[in-house]
């Protein structure tokens, strides 16, 4: 928007004109309410579909960038309801964008559907492998995430049709959240650029509006190459790549003493050689470095790269760094958070049956934690953002491009470990689906708010512009880098 200087009287006149434009009339408010009611009732009508999608995704439990059947399931449902779907976007076969309607405003609803390796479990309140032997599981509840978001998009569509609402609703099928990849590549591709706002949710042990920014992250590997030799016969001919990894890790653990307490640095050694009597010619270490924002992460990353170079020099090995992915911290948006909170309070937390609560308590007993069952209330929205804690999410990339907000709904028993078999078990039950239905309603209601309330969109954008200070989005990953697709075997 172009800005010109205005005299005070002009400013007042302008404010009056803007006021009539932005404050909804009674008729508009009534229209909004009727459309919202339709959206909420549509979610109830769509409950069988949400249930079926959620349980089918749970059965599939496909991990990052292998979500072929999961994406297909959601795409088929969207196409059957009149959405136009672009598949295989941003170089990922399991990423898609589904659209309904035309013109502005354009509202994005985010969906995830990838599972986690190794946390598969039957839908029972104890550690028990699935009968079909599937070892992966929805320990983060993305089966509910995908089903509820698609359900919400369908409900918004029905309300748009019934009430003649203009604009576009877009459902983003974003794969590989668990490896923090999908939205990073979709963001770099510009797929979110023309949105007026994006909304999302996440399964949880609590029902609340997201009010905590999470951490920015770099995810990278360092591979060292040395020289193999017999470790006892002629060790002087060997140059150990594993030595380099050990030295690098030691260096980073010394560095750890001199970074802010907000930093989180963790690693595993996916390849450290094959046998003690062979000097390892190849070794690989895989790192995550996180902190409160991109500049702090970048500073630690640079330091770690110096340490890697030093380790290579000291061990007379070669090294190669690969930045797999990176994300920002999640940029909160107060006006959108408040709109979500109002809808959360209106819809209410899931109501669980005695049987469902007994399931949750039995699960807690098998974990040796307090038997409190499922949480049943909506948390209030604090006035200030909560301090940084927890992990990272690729939703952060969307939040740096357009006004974005989200919330969580109770889908799992209180205090259970996340990303675990116990969370997988909860997410395969009716109780989990109840959480998904609540989420679909809150997303649908907020979607209607965003389509019909120009004042909300304007204040969300104003907040966003202030927070980003007009700075252009910079992708954490290098230009031209391809998504880390799994090898097809
Ligand atoms: Zn998740």
Explain what the structure shows.
42% of the residues lie in helices and 16% in strands. By secondary structure, it is of the alpha/beta class. The strands form two sheets. It has a seven-stranded mixed sheet with strand order 1-2-4-3-5-11-6. Strands 8-9-7-10 form a four-stranded antiparallel sheet, covered by helices on one side. The longest helix is centred in the last third of the chain and has 23 residues, at 430-452. The chain is globular, with a radius of gyration of 25 Å. The N and C termini lie far apart (52 Å). Mean pLDDT is 94; it is low at 1-22. Zinc ion is lined by residues 140, 142, 177, 202.
List keywords for this structure.
binds zinc ion, 16% strand, 489 residues, alpha/beta, 42% helix, 14 helices, four-stranded antiparallel β-sheet
Outline of this structure?
With 489 residues, the protein is α/β, with parallel strands linked by helices. The protein is built from 14 helices and eleven strands.
Distance from first to last alpha carbon: 52 Å
Tell me about the biggest sheet? 7 strands, mixed
Structural class: alpha/beta
Q: SSE order in H/E notation?
A: HHHHEEEHEHEEEHEEHEHHHEHHH
If you compute it from the alpha carbons, what radius of gyration comes out, rounded to the nearest whole angstrom?
25 Å
